[in-house]
Design brief:
By secondary structure, this protein is mostly helical. It starts with a helix and ends with a helix. Helix 1 packs across helix 2, helix 1 packs antiparallel against helix 5 and helix 4 packs across helix 5. It has one domain. It contains five helices and two strands; from the N terminus they run αβαααβα.
Length: 128
Amino acid sequence: MGFLKGLIVRLAGTALAFWLATLIIPGITLDTDSIGGAVSTLILVAIIFGVVNGVLQPIIKTLGCGLYLLTLGLIALVVNALLFLLTSAIAGGLGLPFEVDGFWPAAVLGALFVSLVTWLFGMLMDRD
């Protein structure tokens, strides 16, 4: 039961982070009229983001470990922004009304913001 609870908390935190990103960061939009539509879209986008990060990020880090070392980890900003754009493209392909307008500033700031908010949410909710 603890695993399922943790998964739901992380999913809710990521969906919350995406919602806040649509409110704060220009170029990230959620085009829906109903609250239920917005919530379901945000949950689906959070799932897509989790799958994209879970599958691709370890592969990219393994293949590009030299680049990570060479740039002292700053390439992670670019990688995270590209994964954020990929999440938007997959969501658009599935017909979800979530869109990121481009790499700079929307994807870069969006990836940074979502990472920060999910980290903070995880810190607050990780109480045993």
